[in-house]
Design goal:
377 residues; alpha+beta; Butyryl-CoA Dehydrogenase, subunit A, domain 3; 4-stranded mixed beta sheet; 3-stranded antiparallel beta sheet; 11 strands
Length: 377
């Protein structure tokens, strides 16, 4: 593979239509006042808005027609998630999409058709993946015995408190396996909510010890499916992050073009203009990366080019929002350090994004191996 790699970029008609619909929907349903209303709620999202998203078919965009989906491919989820990120709309769509695609990629279609049909109808699902907080550590500590009984806990399970079922990554007889666990199968005290720096998000630790799986999926496909899950998670997180960077830029420019100091708009000062342009450049790079990655992914096992693209998208998007959120706070002065200032929403999301599916350094370390090792050889 060359350092430049595959640079193809396609934007399908389906993606364009979904982007238009998603942007309008998210703008109408998630103004900043509505976002703030959900910060202190138990779920972090409005159930009525989620029901509308289900009615629009977003939970089944990328799922097969056999289970009621639209079979449009996982790439079409990217513009929807980007629009959600721009509106800071907190819903379980990413968690549910990743869980359903993990099931699809790890099994034969008929094995999980019923579960995917539930997702299309609005059931919330999530993946219980992490055994510790290090995204670079892929060792599995949660175990699954021959009778399908789990031992161990999982950390930072997204949208755990609202999930109908969990896809638990466990080890069975020395190899990875997936255990499908219903929420009502968990003991009352199994879920321990975690407080996240981004209050638009929800996460929890779950103790699955002694819980019997409803269904177990094993075999060679599980390993490649887990690899793809991490890459797709990185891409969808990058798409959401890129949307949030766009909203951060809007917040900055609105302030720079209305706030006056010494009789003139502060946006006229080069010390503020230059960083703002840099944020815009970083945003444009990130957006190009996420749609380049979307061009390369499909429902099959992800190629090396797709892996490079997903990792580049996550690294760039993480850096763009980290810089934009920091500048947004600084530009707003003392007010920027208060929670009432919207700049806080973006810098907090930037911190959460760094820890979701690996930070920029995590992905660049792996890109170095992918891109530079062939040159050395």
């Amino acid at each position: 593979m060359s350092v430049t790699g595959n640079t193809s970029l396609e934007f399908s008609e389906e993606q364009a239509m979904l982007m238009d619909v998603a942007q309008e929907f998210c703008r109408d349903k998630s103004p900043i006042a509505a976002v703030r209303e959900q910060l202190e709620t138990a779920t972090g999202f409005d159930q009525a808005v989620w029901d509308e998203m289900v009615a629009l078919g977003w939970t089944g965009i990328a799922l097969p027609e056999a289970c009621g989906g639209s079979a449009m491919g996982v790439a079409t989820v990217v513009p929807v998630v980007e629009a959600m990120g721009r509106a800071m709309l907190g819903t379980p769509l990413v968690s549910t999409t990743l869980a359903s695609h993990l099931l699809m990629r790890a099994s034969e279609a008929e094995q999980v058709q019923g579960l995917l049909a539930e997702v299309v109808d609005g059931a919330i699902a999530t993946v219980a993946l992490l055994d510790n907080g290090d995204w670079g550590d892929t060792r599995i500590q949660c175990s699954l015995d021959a009778e399908g009984v789990l031992q161990g806990q999982k950390l930072f399970v997204t949208d755990a408190s609202v999930a109908s079922f969990f896809v638990v990554v466990a080890e069975q007889q020395g190899t990875p396996a997936l255990a499908v666990v219903r929420a009502d199968a968990l003991p009352a005290d199994a879920i321990k909510e975690r407080v996240l720096i981004d209050q638009t998000k929800r996460s929890a630790n779950i103790d699955f010890t002694g819980v019997k799986a409803e269904q177990v999926i094993s075999g060679e496909k599980v390993v490649s499916a887990l690899r793809d899950l991490r890459l797709l998670g990185a891409l969808l997180t990058a798409a959401e992050t890129t949307g949030s960077t766009s909203a951060c830029i809007d917040t900055i420019t609105e302030y720079l073009t209305t706030r006056k100091q010494f009789g003139q708009l502060i946006g006229s000062y080069q010390a503020l203009k230059h960083p703002t342009v840099e944020i815009l450049n970083q945003y444009n790079y990130a957006r190009s990366f996420i749609y380049h990655a979307a061009t390369l992914i499909d429902d099959g096992s992800l190629s090396e080019d797709a892996e490079v693209a997903c990792r580049m998208a996550k690294a760039q998007a993480s850096d763009a929002l980290a810089y934009g959120g920091d500048r947004a706070v600084q530009f707003h002065g003392g007010m920027g350090f208060t929670y009432e200032c919207d700049a806080q929403l973006y810098i907090r999301r930037a911190q959460w994004v760094q820890q979701q599916f690996g930070d920029a350094m995590h992905h660049r370390k792996r890109l170095a191996t992918l891109l530079l090792d062939p040159l050395v050889a």
